[in-house]
Amino acid sequence: MHNTSKLKEIKPFVQQVGEAISAVVNAEITIIDDELERIVGTGQFKNRVGIRIPKHFIIAKAIRTGRSFVIEHPGYDPNCSGCHRYNNCEDTAFIAVPISLKGKNIGGIGLVALNSEQKKHLTTQREYLLRFIKKMAELIASKVAEKEVFDLTLLLTSRLEGVINSVKEGIIVIDKEGKILILNFYAKQRTAATDQCVKGKEITDLLPNFPTEDVLKVGKSLTEWETILHRKGGTSTNILANISPIRLQGVIEGAVISFKDISDIQSFMNKISMKAIRPTFDTIIGESKAISDAKRKALKVAKGDSTILLLGESGTGKELFAGAIHNASERSKGPFVVVNCVSIPENLLESELFGYEAGAFTGASPKGKKGKFEQANGGTIFLDEIGDMPFPLQGKLLRVLQERTIEPIGSKSLIPVDIRIISSTNKDLLQLVKKGLFREDLYFRLAVIPIVIPPLRERNGDILLLANHFRKVHNSLLNKNISAISKDVAKILLNYSWPGNVRELKNVIEHATNLETGNEISIESLPATLIKYKEKKNILNLRISSLKEQEETLIKEAIARFGNTTAGKTEAARFLGISRATLYRKLKKYKILNFSN
Q: Which of 43, 137, 178, 312 gives 20 to 30 Å between its CA and that of 9?
């Protein structure tokens, strides 16, 4: 079965072109496709549309060879030999021009003179007419090309729709004005809406808390944003969304919102909860004194309910420590709720933490919503990046710490909560206190037990231990059999400063395991940022640790709080979680005061 010819696909257009040519040149026109079927005919050829012409006709020869022909004596011209009308042709003159596209002849145009007047016009104007017919052939070819692009666009659009509709999460595309352009099948299910209902509507009709200014004006992306999705009929549901602006040549032209219904997430989590790996202190890899001391201190205080402040640079494993403390505590059977204070927009953080009553604000769920503190009741809440908590909310957090109650937005009553609070930061909170950016009273409430998690550069003995652990993990994930890390790579790993700490080391080994083709990780498989350290000496002792500065500040604060007496130092040591002898050594090390008392 033959496919429809390209000229047939645009037949109405080709018909218009044929009739226009005939009117201009005062001659008859016949247009043939590459299957030698007449697509268009004027005058006496009109009744022959749909009929195939013989392959020895001049226009068939033009299509076959890609050449143009001007025949002034049809039936007698050498190019007419082989034609059944040779020496007996009814045409008086003929111009045949191929229609070509991308090096392929897809048809031809024939200009036919049937009487002496038409012949005279054709022969005297042959060059002009030849150029004109060639232009018309190019016009038809360009229309075919346009149709091909259009068809390809339709195909790609259909494929894209198939892809986004197969994704098991909601996808909404909006333009730069915040108008809805596309919803996938999941999104339509969750909103109970049709294209006709929502396309062209404001995104705030579905997501009343959508941060239009941040996303469409500033170009901010959001990850794991918990919000409300309005449904048709006035109901709503809680979702977890990611938002990415769409940019064209640097200009924001819209955004893509992907989301999951939280009930779907909870259902999935319930399915895998029995298989989930609970972090323990045994899962924190490391044998160096620095990490061992941190683990030992954390294990000692895990059984209690005192607040803990984890101090460490990004990537040191603060959340892993928090999870291990929770799982070693009496609260291990209760929930462990993580809140990243920097990833949630400031205007939403209060409702995320404290929850809200039904109808508390525009866009609020009619059922209300439990906040993170209430969700953590009976367990532990981990406030990651506490140094980024907005100042106005710090007072409300202090109240939770003091009274163990929360007040949801829009509520007139207090809800008691039984929680333990673990927080973390990579910032110097005391410096933020001095600058008026962090409440001093809140700091002391959070830092009842401060634990410093050392950066990887201070755990030199753990670097290769961790690297080999990650090598084995990614061997399994990638189905590889890399048995070792080369000596040259080991030197680089030991010399590198690891600003991204354990997280960066994990990424480096994952990168290398993906690229490595041999039996051991070689320099060639490392990221470029590490290769430049090939000849460097170990710079571990040349860096000034920001955490050491924090430690010095903590000791100074403790002495200022408890006094420069023997009893005061005993209390300070207890507050810091170290022995009095260790405190005296550190006082001497930092030259803080006369340590001989």
A: 43
Measured CA to CA, the distance from residue 525 to residue 129 in angstroms comes to 66
The CA distance from 481 to 105, in Å, is 55
With respect to residue 596, please indicate whether it lies within any of the assigned structural domains: no
Whole-angstrom Cα distance, residue 389 to residue 369? 21
The three-state secondary structure class of 233 is coil
Pair of tokens at residue 467 = 């690297």
Give the residue from 450, 455, 454 showing the smallest Cα distance to 577: 450
Strand pairing partners for 171? 258
Q: How many domains does the chain have?
A: 5
Instruction: Determine the Cα–Cα distance for residues 437 and 429; give it in Å rounded to an integer.
Output: 9
> Which string of DSSP letters, residue by residue, matches 521-532?
E-GGGS-HHHHT
CB 356 within 8 A of CB 225: no
Containing 260, the helix (H) or strand (E) segment is strand 251-261
Long-range CB pairs of 46-52 (<8 Å, 24+ gap) are none
Residues 282 and 261 in one domain: no
Residues listed for the chain: 597
* Residue 144 to residue 561: CA distance in whole angstroms: 84
What's the domain range around 179?
Answer: 169-267
pLDDT score at 535: 45
DSSP string, 178-199: SBEEEE-HHHHHHHT--HHHHT
Angle, vertex CA 165, rays to CA 160 and CA 171, nearest 5: 90
Q: Would you say residue 161 lies in a domain? A: no
Cα(241)–Cα(207) distance, integer angstroms: 10
- What is the SS3 assignment for 380? strand
pLDDT of 392 reads 87
- Residue 254: what pLDDT? 93
Give CA separation, 206 vs 200, 229, 232, in Å: 12, 6, 9
pTM greater than 0.90: no
Q: Which residues of the chain have pLDDT under 70?
A: 1-3, 266-277, 359, 361-367, 532-547, 593-597
| Interhelix angle 460-478/501-515, nearest 10 degrees | 40
Distance CA 95, CA 82 (A): 18
- Report helix, strand or coil for 223: strand
How far apart are alpha carbons 456 and 506 in whole angstroms? 12
Sign of CA dihedral 268, 272, 273, 278: negative
What angle is formed at CA 148 by the lines to CA 144 and CA 150, rounded to 5 degrees?
A: 115
User: CA 465 from chain center: how many Å?
Assistant: 32
Q: Is the dihedral of CA 535, 504, 453, 388 positive or negative?
A: positive
* Residue 25 and residue 163 in contact, taking contact as beta carbons nearer than 8 Å: no
Kindly state whether residues 479 and 448 are assigned to the same domain: no
Q: Which helix (H) or strand (E) holds 30?
A: strand 28-33
